[in-house]
Amino acid sequence: MANKKSSKKDLRRIAKRRVQNQELRTSLKTYVKKVRTAITGGDSTAVATTLTAAVKNLDKAAKRGVIHKNAAARRKSRIARAANKALAASK
Predict the structure, then answer these.
(1) If you compute the radius of gyration of the chain from its CA atoms, what whole number of angstroms results?
(2) Which of 3, 31, 49, 87 could form a disulfide with 54 if both were Cys (CB 3.0 to 4.6 A apart)?
């Protein structure tokens, strides 16, 4: 356990940031899930809007350091590939 006042404050900050990062990671999973459900639904406008929101939030999380930039790129690539495949199949 920390003894100095600044160390105790650092622990409080870290705990607060950890909760925020967990919330953001969970919301990223939700955005990706929304894209996947829109893909199975077959609505091209829904796919486009949810894909845009997911990409935006993945980029933001990578910029803030919540997830690694390569992890964000990998997730974006996977959902974009699935979306393009579904849109090509519907045409």
Answers:
(1) 18
(2) 31
Rounded Cα gap, residues 14 and 6, in angstroms: 12
Structure tokens at 10: 């650092």
- Per-residue exposure over 62-89, b if at least 16 CB sit within 10 Å of its own CB, e if not: beeebbeeeebeebbeebeebbeebeee
Query: What residue has token string 């930039």?
Result: 69
Give the pLDDT band of residue 90 (cuts 50, 70, 90).
confident
What 8-state DSSP symbol labels residue 7?
H
What's the predicted TM-score (pTM) here? 0.85
